[in-house]
Amino acid sequence: MMEKFSSTKVLDQIVNKTALAIEEGKKEIFGISESVRRENATLESELVMTKAKLSIIISDVDKLEIRTQMAKNMIKTINEHFDEFGEKDIREAYELSESVQLLLSSKRHEERELVEKRNTLERMLRNNNEMLKKAEVLEMKVSVALEYLTGNVVEQIKEKKDIGLKIIEAQEQEKKRISRDIHDGPAQSLANVIYKAEYASKVIDHAPGKAKKEIYDLQEDVRNILNDIRRIIYDLMPMSLDDLGLVPTVKKLAMNINDSYKVKVHLNTVQESVVEDSLVNLMAFRVIQESLNNIVKHSKSKTATIDLQILDDFLKVDIWDEGKGFNVEEIEHNPSGYGLYNMKERVEIVNGDISIESSPKKGTHIKLRIPNQ
Ligand SMILES: Nc1ncnc2c1ncn2[C@@H]1O[C@H](COP(=O)(O)OP(=O)(O)OP(=O)(O)O)[C@@H](O)[C@H]1O
Ligand SMILES: [Mg+2]
To answer: Structure pTM?
Structure first.
């Protein structure tokens, strides 16, 4: 029990720690994405400005190229008709051409710088957007991992592990119960048989009448022991369950109890379907068996009633007595045996539901529902 709790606790701790680390990672990724998004907003507005400036410069350059060309043409004309122009005109034409060319080269320089800036901004934005895409994919993966860790999937895995542990635990308790049954029943009775046989052999010579009576008693004792052993074997695994099915096996159990104890068992059955899953059969049988054991052992009821319905979708079992009843909560907090606990564990294994209703002096009612698929 301790082993189970500690390993489940360790597993929980590992899951929690991993989930926390992933949550931290998720926050960091989100932080990085946010700062990249902010940087992108700045880059984008800078790019818009740069492109606007660039288009103005480009049109300036275009205009200046035309003016430069015009200035060149003018100089060419002056050179061709040198005689027709005065010195002043010639100087002014050269000065104009020079200043236009200077302006053009400075504007071209500005254009080159702006083109470079635009290209750099565009490259940065492309890189950032690629990073954002990666971060988004990573965020999604991390969210899925987190969901996986904290959500149903892990719960289901853990549940499976828990059920495995419960099966082992139930088996251990079953072994304890069998050894207790053998110890309290046939083992003690056999010790008594040995004692009686020794006594008979001692008195056989001088009191043959007494010895005869002892031997007669012995026969009766051995017959009872044989019955006890048969019951224990039957309890271990009712042979008919797999061969005949649930209803005939429960009928046989009810007959055994009617023959052996003072309790009268009434069995009502409705069989509209069959139970395919042998585990469902076994679990249902065990619950009925333990409920009847408890009625015989504890209830002081004269009757026990079983309603057993095998339907298409559900297996429904109701078992009740009219005995002294008990305080369910109290017994659950402070169990005196394994019977009720085992019932619940078994029912959980086959995804069923069990309720135990009882109160002192009002009898006990066990309701069992197991999906029949
Ligand atoms: N039908 C019943 N009528 C009255 N009391 C009951 C009934 N069923 C259970 N109880 C009470 O609940 C207690 C717990 O039952 P449970 O089957 O868990 O253990 P047990 O029968 O004492 O031991 P075990 O089943 O391990 O042999 C019983 O000791 C008894 O006091
Ligand atoms: Mg019991």
So the answer is: 0.53
